[in-house]
Specification:
The structure is a single chain. By secondary structure, the chain is α+β, with helices and mostly antiparallel strands. It has five helices and ten strands, in the order ααααβαβββββββββ. The protein has one domain. 26% of the residues lie in helices and 27% in strands. It is extended, with a radius of gyration of 28 Å.
């Protein structure tokens, strides 16, 4: 009788341990997913419409925006910047889309990308809540003998007249413009002008021309 009771107790303990182990381990093997709709009658508030000042600012030419930005105080600039942060654009450009004319010249070739990576760097944003940039900058050679700056996984807070510069430092006092930023999110390519000294212009900047302010920079290294 005692042996039966003892066996029963041991069996119960084994069962309890086994059940506990299953529930402790189950999150490793069991995934759950849910996609609940909004409750009936609930509404998602739409973003506020752009202010009159913002609309007037965007109706200007780039040169006029630079002049207007020079006349604005910090509060006015920040207000326009905050309105820009609600406007995101994205792009996912492949290396094959570097330049249409370049591709036309190379139709007889197998491609216009090489596997070599000359320089790379990670963006460091200003990080003040308005001006920020994250992602990777790469300098990649192409078969015509030139180079491109490729921005990968780029996420920049939006702003007016953002440009991509190669610069000697983060002040853009001595810089080479690669063109207007194509989108504030995504992968994108920029041809580097022939003859650009990459040992001198070794920093990629995301620069706001309208307000002459840095959003982020990446120091290029081998």
């Amino acid at each position: 009788m005692r042996k039966g009771i003892k066996f029963g107790i041991i069996s119960a303990i084994v069962i309890i341990i086994g059940v506990s182990a299953f529930y402790l381990a189950s999150p490793l093997f069991v995934s759950t997913e849910i996609d609940e709709p909004l409750p009936g009658g609930a509404e998602v508030s739409a973003p506020p419409p752009p202010s009159n000042q913002f609309q007037e600012f965007m109706a200007m030419s780039e040169e006029e925006r630079i002049e207007a930005g020079n006349r604005m105080d910090e509060k006015e600039r920040n207000q326009i910047m905050l309105e820009f942060t609600r406007m995101n654009t994205s792009i996912n450009e492949s290396m094959a889309q570097i330049n249409e004319s370049l591709l036309e010249q190379q139709t007889s070739q197998t491609g216009n990308e090489t596997s070599d990576l000359l320089l790379t760097g990670s963006f460091v944003g200003v990080g003040d809540g308005i001006h920020d940039a994250q992602g990777i900058a790469k300098v990649i050679p192409i078969e015509d003998g030139g180079n491109v700056v490729r921005l990968e996984d780029l996420v920049v807070t939006n702003g007016p007249d953002l440009y991509v510069y190669l610069s000697t430092d983060k002040s853009a006092s001595d810089s080479v413009s690669l063109g207007k930023l194509k989108a504030n999110i995504g992968n994108q390519n920029y041809l580097i002008p022939a003859g650009t000294d990459l040992s001198k212009y070794d920093t990629v900047l995301i620069w706001c021309r309208a307000f002459s302010v840095l959003f982020g920079g990446a120091e290029l290294k081998p």
